[in-house]
Every structure is written in C-alpha cells, then in structure tokens.
Design goal:
Blueprint lengths: L2 E5 L3 H13 L3 E5 L2 H10 L4 E5 L7 H10 L8 E5 L5 H7 L3 E4 L4 H13 L25 H8 L2 E5 L3 H13 L3 E5 L5 H8 L3 E5 L7 H9 L9 E5 L4 H9 L4 E4 L4 H12 L6
Parallel strand pairs: 1-2, 1-3, 3-4, 4-5, 6-7, 6-8, 8-9, 9-10
Helix pairs in contact: 1-11, 2-3
C-alpha cells in the first residue's frame, strides 16, 4: 500500500482515480490546487505524486520545479497527467518520472504507481501506456500478450437511457476499458456477439423485452455463457435478486450510476484479467 498525493483539477477524473486508488488499498490525499499540492507534499510525506499539468493555482511545470528544488520533496516520484501536445521528452527532462496521456486510464496509472513504488530508484522513461519496463528497472517487462489483454477488454452497457449511458461511459473509459452502449433491445444479441465483451451491464427496465428475458437469452449464446452479467436497476429487492440469479445474472448494481460502485464491479470481475 502506498500513500498517494493526487493533484487533479478535473472533478470526474479526480473521483475515478481517487476511488480506484482506494479500492486497491492505497491511502489517497487529493487537491485540485497546485499550490496546496506543494504544501501537502511536505506535510503529508506521500510515497508518490500524481500531477495534473493543468492544475489550478500552480500548474504542473511550476509544481515540479518547486518539488525538485526542495530537500524535503526532491526524491518523491511524480507522474504527470499531460495533454498529447506536450512532448514526453520535455516532461522527463523537467523532472517527472513518467507520464500518462489525457484522458488518463486508471489502470495504466496504477501500473506506473506500482512500478515506481516498487523500484527504489525512480523508473525513468516509462513514457507510453504500453511501454515495457526494461530489466534494468528491476521490474518484469510487459509482454505483448499482457498488453493485448489490456487493450482488448470491452465492457458493454445495455440501456436506452442516454444520461445513464454517458455516466457509465465516463467511468468505464476513465478506468481504461473499451466501452460499448447498446440502446436498441432488438439489437442486443447480435451486437453482443459482434463485440464479445468481457463484462455486461444490463438495464432491467427496457422497452419491448425486459432485462430478465434478455439475460436468459444471452446465457443461451455459447460464447457468452460465462461472461459476467450485472443487472442494473432502481429496484434492489430480494425477490428481484432471486429472479435475476435464476436467469443467470452475476450481480446487481443499483441506480443512480456512481463511480465507486461501478469501479467495484470492474475490479471484482475484471481484475483477474488486468489491473483496473
């Protein structure tokens, strides 16, 4: 477990990262202000800092300069969250240990945190999400099979509610997974077969056909028999859970769509494939 200082001015991204870090039992201190982040780096003594280059108050360039010039904070590893327009070479030369391109993936940030915290000397040059760690870093390299698995994990959400779909998309994509929304009930089965998701969120209240019937139909498809299906509903009664189990659902998710419950589901059912 590491103590992480998260400096991030973007609210949704900050919530996703904070919850993901905490679910993996890291201690998290957060702020959206760069100047407050500098103070927290001194008073909280974090093991690692995750820094939004666009933080308010002091931006990432100003913060890293202060951190690296201070005897108290110069040795703390710092991960930059940067726009694609900023070159990796510039970030590394300025003093960042590695960086993640925006929009950031919680999975890749967690991997880099593990690499930096586990390595006594900071891991320099881990510039891309799929960049392998060399043996000189003291960490096992990322294999092509591992990376294929990371890049090809798809989560599907069957729901015709646009607002709920957008909320789910932000969380799933922010966690680093591919996302597919299926809004037309009659197209659910062919689209699930086409996309072959590793996890399915299924709205219970759908037009034409309800979630129970769809769940039973999905379980008849050989390629989806073992795919986790999470029933999403406003009703979380014992009778609903019992009926959902009878038709083959794996779990329940109560509305409204919120960051922490969704991340818990992603970790529970996809962590055996990769780190969220």
């Amino acid at each position: 477990m590491a103590k992480i200082l998260l400096i991030n001015s973007e609210r949704t991204s900050r919530q996703i990262l904070e919850h993901a870090f905490m679910l993996y039992e890291h201690e998290v201190v957060t702020t959206q202000h760069g100047d407050e982040g500098v103070t927290l780096a001194v008073t909280e003594s974090p093991d690692i800092i995750v820094m939004d280059m666009d933080a308010v108050g002091l931006n990432g360039w100003q913060v890293i300069k202060v951190l690296k010039e201070s005897r108290t904070t110069w040795s703390i590893p710092v991960i930059a969250m940067a726009d694609p327009t900023i070159t990796g070479q510039m970030l590394l030369q300025t003093g960042f240990d590695t960086y993640e391109r925006k929009p950031v993936s919680a999975r890749y940030v967690l991997q880099k945190i593990d690499a930096l915290v586990d390595s006594p000397s900071s891991v320099k040059g881990l510039s891309q999400p799929n960049a392998p760690l060399s043996s000189s870093d003291g960490c096992a390299p990322t294999t092509s099979d591992d990376q294929y698995q990371l890049d090809h994990t798809t989560v599907a959400y069957v729901d015709n509610n646009l607002a709920d779909s957008q909320a789910m998309a932000k969380i799933v994509q922010g966690a680093g997974y591919n996302y597919v929304n299926i809004s037309e009930p009659l197209q659910v089965l062919p689209q699930l077969i086409e996309h072959s998701p590793q996890l399915i969120f299924l709205e219970l209240a759908l037009p034409v056909v309800n979630g129970y019937e769809l769940c039973a139909q999905i379980r008849r498809i050989s390629s989806l028999k073992k795919t986790p299906i999470i029933i999403v509903t406003n009703n979380d009664r014992i009778a609903d859970r019992f009926r959902a189990k009878l038709v083959g659902s794996s779990d329940f998710l109560s509305k409204p769509i919120r960051v922490k419950p969704v991340l818990k589901v992603l970790i529970k059912y996809l962590s055996s494939r990769s780190t969220v």
